[in-house]
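in:
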């Protein structure tokens, strides 16, 4: 008898969903029909097969099938030719094919129907693999391990069966195939056939069972694997565990009596997918009797088995362990039962800016709500966003009570406003509360992150109404107070042009709008402010004047360094001859541009050395002329030019004008 030995039973030991489903189908048929048979042993377990035989269920071959007989196709599945043969024999077919095997059938049928080549990782003589091959329209190719895959790929390439790169190749696996071995084959496929489709079709329960058994074996001195000696997945469990410790395969608890466990301090127990619960329990009890293990150390198998077989219902809240994410964004989840859980991409989150991998990752544990169950397929459809919405609505209620701001993403522009998603909940923001100005385009908010406050909450309907504008106003008021506290005349800052009018432009200085009048936009002559700025422009402005009580700010975009008069006086002097361009004609003379922003007056008396009755007879807008600077009035910023001063004098002609020169100068000032 062993002493002080710890016994651990793997939680995943025993029936998988496919086997459990197939057995339920057979036993149910026994209650309603008499002539029931299974096409081959329903599972690779002698005890179960013997029990069914005692109840009148025979395991028959295809040749032994009788007309009118109820024939159950076991979870391994069969090929298309077997279905046809059963129909021809007149059998009543009951299909108990494991849904995970059925998915492989569809994969290989669809691919091979299009002319593609199918490669199957598995045992060529195993019933499941034979069934998969039977759904291939063309030849199927089976390999077991990386070496066989390499040889097979080379041969098919030489024969021209597969295209270069393997773009026409689909690689699948037997559902009970060794997970580690398939990963090696998958890596090899990337090298040999980089364009091939490699689908990991190993059953989650199988992969999980193998992984858990392996981890248990690493901590054990002896592993006991309970199951049939002809069961593929049971044999693989033995092979996986034998890498780490002494491993025994037993079909019944009676076989343990002949084994020697001397020196073993940690013993692990697992079982294949076709091993009934009572056999596992017998093994565990037998080992308990051979050791003085305390009650706390004994694993409660019945309790754990009950957990895996527990019923779940629509609307139930469950905890899920994220297994993986497929190419379509669908997430596979373990919810602790014999079911396989899936979260459709659309049930992960309401935020369209997030990818599935942004929301969850393998290894995460998340709360979920059951949307739909299918005991027939062993599939449960789940939702994460509904759980998030429940939790999120609590945060919305709290934000309303505390008058705090929330952050969300604008996901939709709808009639009358926008929808903002925050914490998994959609909040309606009316158009009147969505922007700072009523005429702003709501579409500009789409997919933007915004801050807002909650105005109304309807807890009964799970709805909420919010406002972006109220928060913008609060933020703007705070910015205005800070601005008027710190801003002073003469200060230069950057701003954004918010609007352009006939008389100037309004610039947002960060909560405060200042006015740049037309005359303060530029030193140049312009017809309209839009000649200089446009809405959205980033500009540098200087505060000319500030009225903090009235909340008004006068701005200028002119810079002293760019003042044309300063540039002129620095580079020109009286008596200097210049080239100028006529820019306007008046009754008393013409104005000519010396530099950009500085014009000089050529009085009518200074155009020619003879009398000029009409300026337009001599000069036209656009004419280039040579003139002399005869006066610079710095105080009045006025320049007088003369063309006449550069002409040869005509002694016989005195030029006399009746016009009042002072009046002309006044008109020039106005010009």
């Amino acid at each position: 008898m062993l002493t002080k030995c710890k016994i651990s039973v793997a939680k995943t030991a025993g029936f998988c969903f496919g086997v459990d489903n197939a057995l339920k189908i057979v036993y149910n048929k026994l209650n309603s029909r008499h002539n029931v048979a299974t096409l081959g042993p329903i599972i690779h377990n002698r005890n179960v097969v013997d029990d069914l035989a005692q109840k009148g269920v025979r395991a028959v071959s295809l040749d032994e099938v009788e007309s009118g007989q109820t024939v159950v196709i076991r979870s391994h599945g069969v090929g298309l030719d077997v279905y046809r043969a059963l129909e021809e024999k007149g059998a009543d077919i009951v299909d108990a094919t494991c849904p995970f095997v059925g998915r492989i059938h569809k994969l290989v049928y669809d691919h091979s129907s299009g002319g593609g080549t199918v490669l199957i990782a598995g045992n060529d003589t195993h019933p499941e693999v034979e069934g998969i091959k039977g759904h291939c329209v063309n030849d199927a190719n089976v390999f077991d391990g990386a070496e066989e895959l390499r040889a097979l790929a080379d041969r098919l390439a030489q024969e021209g069966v597969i295209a270069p790169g393997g773009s026409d190749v689909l690689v699948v696996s037997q559902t009970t195939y060794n997970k580690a071995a398939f990963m090696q084959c998958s890596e090899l496929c990337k090298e040999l056939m980089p364009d091939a489709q490699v689908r990991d079709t190993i059953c989650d329960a199988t992969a999980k069972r193998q992984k858990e058994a392996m981890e248990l074996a690493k901590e054990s001195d002896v592993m006991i694997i309970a199951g049939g000696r002809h069961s593929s997945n049971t044999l693989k469990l033995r092979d996986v565990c034998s890498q780490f410790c002494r491993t025994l395969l037993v079909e019944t608890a009676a076989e343990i009596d002949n084994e020697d466990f001397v020196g073993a301090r940690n013993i692990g127990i697992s079982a294949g997918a076709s091993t009934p619960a009572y056999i596992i329990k017998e093994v565990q009890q037998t080992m308990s009797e051979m050791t003085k293990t305390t009650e706390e150390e004994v694993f409660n198998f019945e309790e754990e088995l009950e957990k895996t077989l527990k019923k779940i219902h629509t609307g139930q809240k469950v905890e899920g362990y994220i297994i993986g994410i497929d190419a379509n964004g669908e997430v596979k989840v373990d919810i602790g039962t014999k079911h396989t859980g899936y979260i459709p991409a659309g049930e992960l989150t309401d935020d369209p800016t997030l990818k599935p991998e942004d929301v969850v990752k393998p290894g995460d544990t998340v709360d979920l709500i059951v949307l739909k169950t299918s005991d027939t397929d062993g599939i449960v459809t789940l939702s994460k966003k509904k759980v998030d919405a429940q939790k999120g609505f609590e945060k919305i209620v709290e934000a309303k009570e505390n008058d705090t701001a929330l952050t969300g993403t604008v996901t939709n522009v709808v009639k009358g406003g926008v929808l903002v998603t925050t914490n998994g909940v959609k909040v309606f923001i009316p158009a009147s509360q969505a922007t700072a100005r009523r005429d702003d385009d709501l579409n500009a908010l789409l997919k933007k992150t915004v801050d807002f406050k909650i105005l109304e909450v309807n807890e009964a309907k799970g709805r909420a109404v919010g406002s972006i504008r109220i928060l913008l106003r609060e933020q703007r008021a705070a910015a205005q107070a800070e601005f008027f506290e710190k801003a002073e005349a003469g200060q230069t800052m950057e701003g954004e042009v918010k609007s352009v009018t006939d008389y100037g432009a309004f610039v947002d200085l960060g909560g405060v709008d200042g006015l740049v009048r037309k005359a303060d936009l530029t030193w140049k002559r312009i017809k309209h402010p839009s000649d200089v700025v446009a809405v959205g422009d980033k500009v540098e402005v200087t505060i000319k004047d500030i009225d903090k009580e009235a909340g008004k700010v006068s701005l200028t975009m002119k810079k002293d360094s760019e003042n044309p008069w300063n540039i002129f006086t620095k580079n020109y002097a009286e008596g200097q001859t210049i080239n100028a361009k006529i820019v306007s004609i008046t009754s008393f003379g013409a104005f000519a541009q010396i530099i950009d922003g500085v014009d000089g007056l050529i009085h009518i008396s200074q155009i020619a050395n003879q009398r000029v009755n009409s300026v337009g007879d001599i000069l036209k807008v656009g004419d280039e002329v040579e003139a002399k600077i005869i006066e610079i009035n710095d105080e009045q910023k006025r320049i007088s030019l003369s063309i006449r001063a550069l002409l040869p004098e005509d002694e016989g002609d005195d030029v006399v004008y009746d016009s009042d020169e002072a009046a002309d100068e006044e008109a020039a000032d106005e010009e």
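note: The mean pLDDT is 85.
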